[in-house]
Amino acid sequence: MKTKLIDISQLTSKSLKDKAYLDSFSEYYKLATVTENGLWHNNQNVLDHVIGVYAGLETILEYKDTEVAQKDVLSNYLSELIGSQTRQNILKVATLLHDIAKTDVLVKKPDGTAGCPGHDLIAAGRVKNFAERFGLDNKSESYVERIVRYHGFISEILDLMIANQDKEKYFRIFNETVGDVAIELTLLMHADLLGSDLEKSDKQGYNERINLLSWMLELLFLKDNS
User: Fold this and answer.
1) Which one, 60, 85, 152, 183, has least CB within 10 Å?
2) Tens digit of pLDDT for each residue in 105-149?
3) H/E element holding 182?
């Protein structure tokens, strides 16, 4: 049976919420069976979270809070073609798939918290299962895989920046580790925060991370144009 192609440029958070892809992307809707609980997710259903993250990315890509010069740089960067897809479409696919493995790794603890350790690495290994569905060739698939693989790592980098008060050191480590998907990871992390419950549960921690991401993105703009 031929795989039904999903046009990522036409996919929206609203169409996801309306279950427009229930047949062609059924794995996504199985995330409704998983509920996480902690600072980032207050008994939050994973399907609600990932749709919220995609909506967050849509907001970011409207560039309303982006300076004009940065908007032009970012827009040009995301329009770059990587294999069969633009960087923007690659980022959208990675955003869709970044938590796709949470159905398999939920751990409930005695204190009532629940999380999904290792989901980023497992999800990265599953990107190949969706490549044909989203029209990814080998090169664009590789980029999606790396963004998914490292989306948990950037969260850990932010934690280290805050805990050890040395953002320059950990920014350097981040750059050296993730290579040329650093901008995409920064944007996905921002969207992930927007789709989480952290702003309500830890306003200070949320603001610290948003500010760090803005600082990182500014440096990445400079690096990309040097």
Assistant:
1) 60
2) 999 999 999 999 999 999 999 999 999 999 999 999 999 999 999
3) helix 182-194
Please state, in angstroms and rounded to a whole number, the distance separating the CA atoms of residues 124 and 127.
5
* Residue 178: C-alpha distances to residues 11, 27, 141, 171 (Å): 27, 27, 16, 11
Instruction: Classify 114 as helix, strand or coil.
Output: strand
Is the Cβ–Cβ distance between 158 and 190 less than 8 Å? no
CATH number, domain with residue 118: 1.10.3210
Residue 120 resides in a domain: yes
Residue 7 lies in a domain: no
CA–CA distance, 182 with 121 (Å, rounded to integer): 17
Whether residue 175 is contained in a domain is answered as yes
Maximal CA-CA distance, the chain: 54
Residue 211 lies in a domain: yes
